[in-house]
Amino acid sequence: MLFETFSNRSLQLSNRMVMAPLTRSRATPEHTPNALMATYYGQRATAGLIITEGTSPSPNGLGYPRIPGLFDSTQMNEWKASTSAVHAKGGKIFLQLMHCGRVAHVDNLPTGAEILGPDAAACPGEMYTDTLGMQPHSTPRKMTEADIAHVINEYVTSAKLALEAGFDGVEIHGANGYLIEQFLNPLINLRTDGYGGSIEGRNRLALEIVRATVAAIGSDRVGIRLSPYGVFNGTGAFPDIETQYLALTKALSSQGLLYIHLVDHSSMGAPTVPADFKLKLRAGFDGLFILSGGFDHQSAEQALRDKHGDLVAFGRPFLANPDLVARMRQDATLNTPDEATFYVPGAKGYTDYPTLATSPER
């Protein structure tokens, strides 16, 4: 099933393999996409669907050095090279919209931008800056309701720009401790207004962003990524977590969302997302369900046959294997990712991984 064509609503895919979003930090220091990124995505266009690295809809959301944005016409025009490279090979590509929120350092932001979060509490731990090396996360400013309304509008603007740039749709990043999950998680969101204090309040920002984005570009072009039970960037499990996410899923389904992309990082040391909970999420959502987290050829095939999901996402295997689809078809040996090059500038560890056709052992 993994290599079968797949059609549903706006998607006509050559296979059920999804390239998961992978931060690679290869944009310019000004956060503009470039030709090297277009080469990278074009190399991996045999994936049924590519989801790009997290891309900020706002100067305030950039957080990390050299991650791309999509909030002005220059960035939109530069992204066209990547969408064209993928479409030229018959692939499909969604842009992942990621506002980092409090996961940021001031030295990584452009002039005039500021760090925002649900509360004025810094994210624990450190992050890399090109200017100062590793630094503690900067303290955010607590968002007002006016700030929240502005952020929602930024997502809408960015989604419209994504379609202008040639993307087939957008994925809203509601996972991994970034802005939307900062509101979802009561370990971080200590608000007592309408955007906190209850399941409904904590879910509100995610749903308002989704609703506005769907209204702007259509439900067939919008998905969301979620990571219940994740522990990244100060998140973690909390009482009523399953009740909250099932309510969120039901509300997302009512908006006609194209897909939910579920993250399970247990293969990387995070707690396992309970299997029965995954099934409840899938049953409660009237749309596509993308599985993600440590899959190989055999486990992905089994998950599809067991109807646990419609598509399966692969992260690091696509990073190191531009021809992952061909390699899995042949059960060929996979390249090993070079972790030292994950987030550094340049082609090394980015566009220079060998394919089966160019591999030295051949």
Structural notes for this entry:
The strands form 4 sheets. This protein has an 8-stranded parallel barrel, surrounded by 4 helices. A two-stranded antiparallel sheet has the order 1-2. Helix 2 (73-88) links the parallel strand 4 (49-55) and strand 5. The protein is 31% helix and 16% strand. With 362 residues, the chain is α/β, with parallel strands linked by helices. It has helices spanning 35-43, 73-88, 145-164, 179-184, 199-217, 241-254, 275-283, 297-305, 316-320, 324-329, and strands spanning 6-8, 11-13, 17-19, 49-55, 93-97, 116-117, 126-129, 133-136, 141-142, 169-174, 222-226, 259-263, 288-292, 311-314. The chain contains 10 helices and 14 strands. Helix 3 (145-164) packs parallel to helix 5.
SSE map:
Blueprint: E1 6-8, E2 11-13, E3 17-19, H1 35-43, E4 49-55, H2 73-88, E5 93-97, E6 116-117, E7 126-129, E8 133-136, E9 141-142, H3 145-164, E10 169-174, H4 179-184, H5 199-217, E11 222-226, H6 241-254, E12 259-263, H7 275-283, E13 288-292, H8 297-305, E14 311-314, H9 316-320, H10 324-329
Helix pairs in contact: 1-2, 3-5, 5-6
What does this entry show, briefly?
With 362 residues, the protein is of the alpha/beta class.
Protein traits:
eight-stranded parallel β-barrel, single chain, globular, two-stranded antiparallel ribbon, 10 helices
